[in-house]
């Protein structure tokens, strides 16, 4: 059995994420129209599409930052459509942003430690002996998982851009997530940093599924086993990376940038 099939077989049946008929309007603009999508536990999926296709709005609906205008969202079987974002985080949903959410004056380790405190049930205490703290150990493990152990005591402001993006992944991994939404993690990275990102994503624990929005097809298609193509707020194609990559319609719409921003005003 190949590693992907094995990984998906051990994490169980059912859906991690299930969207049914999700539509999101902004005034007269339909940013998403009737999106139906199922992602299995442990599955890794890319959502691709040209600018304005609705990818970020899809993430915002899943996280609860912008609830859908209509339709339903289930997370591991539970209807979370009307849950606030923190309730989804409590259930194991995480997200990274295109814009950095790091504390630049703190060290790498302290950023991760605070993220671990933030999602843990116990409150942060300045009086807790830090060396005995299991959260400290979790933070160390996460720093290692994103290849930043060598710079763990450095302030975030001193890190290279690629290292900051790696740190954002560590923050998303805090507190035992079950599913992560990665928003363009390769943006602004050098070729070497992209290679490192691919290694980090493909080494994540097998039970953690994710959706990645990524304009860099080379990165996206190497770290997923399925792809959803969006155009003008709708899903127009789904399939394994090889099939999507060689699809003539995808090539014309995505690689040719045939986006019609006026096509979905009512
Ligand atoms: N808060 C908002 N208010 C009004 N319109 C919005 C809002 N958010 C998104 N839109 C519009 O919805 C459409 C989809 O935008 P979205 O950001 O989801 O696309 P995208 O695929 O993520 O694009 P990009 O690749 O450029 O990030 C766009 O036409 C955008 O202008």
UniProtKB/TrEMBL annotation:
GO terms for molecular function: ATP binding; ATP hydrolysis activity; L-isoleucine transmembrane transporter activity; L-phenylalanine transmembrane transporter activity; L-valine transmembrane transporter activity. InterPro entries: AAA+_ATPase, ABC_AA/LPS_Transport, ABC_transporter-like_ATP-bd, BCA_ABC_TP_C, P-loop_NTPase. GO terms for biological process: D-alanine transmembrane transport; L-alanine transport; L-isoleucine import across plasma membrane; L-valine import across plasma membrane. One of its GO terms (cellular component) is plasma membrane. Residues 17-257 form the ABC transporter domain. Pfam families: ABC_tran (PF00005), BCA_ABC_TP_C (PF12399). Keywords: ATP-binding, Nucleotide-binding, Transport. Involved in beta-(1-->2)glucan export. Transmembrane domains (TMD) form a pore in the inner membrane and the ATP-binding domain (NBD) is responsible for energy generation. This is Amino acid/amide ABC transporter ATP-binding protein 1, HAAT family. It comes from Bradyrhizobium lablabi.
């Amino acid at each position: 059995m190949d590693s992907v099939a094995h990984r998906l077989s051990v994490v169980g049946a059912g859906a991690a994420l299930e969207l049914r008929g999700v539509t999101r309007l902004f005034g007269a603009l339909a940013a998403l129209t009737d999106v139906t999508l199922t992602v299995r536990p442990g599955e890794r999926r890319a959502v691709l599409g040209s600018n304005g296709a609705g990818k970020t709005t899809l993430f915002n609906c899943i996280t609860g930052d912008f609830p859908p205008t209509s339709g339903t969202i289930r997370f591991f079987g539970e209807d979370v459509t009307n849950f606030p974002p923190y309730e989804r985080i409590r259930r194991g949903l995480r997200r990274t942003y295109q814009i950095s959410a790091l504390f630049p004056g703190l060290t790498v380790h302290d950023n991760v430690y605070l993220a671990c405190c933030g999602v843990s049930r116990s409150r942060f205490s300045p009086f807790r002996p830090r060396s005995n703290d299991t959260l400290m150990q979790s933070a160390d493990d996460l720093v290692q998982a994103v290849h930043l152990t060598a710079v763990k005591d450095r302030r975030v402001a001193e890190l290279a851009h690629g290292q900051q993006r790696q740190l954002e992944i560590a923050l998303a991994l805090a507190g035992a997530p079950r599913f992560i939404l990665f928003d363009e993690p390769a943006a602004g990275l050098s070729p070497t940093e992209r290679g490192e990102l691919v290694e980090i994503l493909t080494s994540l624990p097998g039970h953690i599924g994710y959706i990645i929005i990524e304009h860099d097809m080379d990165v996206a298609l190497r770290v997923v086993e399925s792809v959803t193509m969006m155009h003008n707020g709708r899903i127009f194609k789904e399939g394994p990376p090889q099939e999507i990559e060689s699809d003539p319609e995808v090539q014309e719409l995505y690689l040719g940038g045939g986006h019609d921003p006026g096509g979905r005003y009512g």
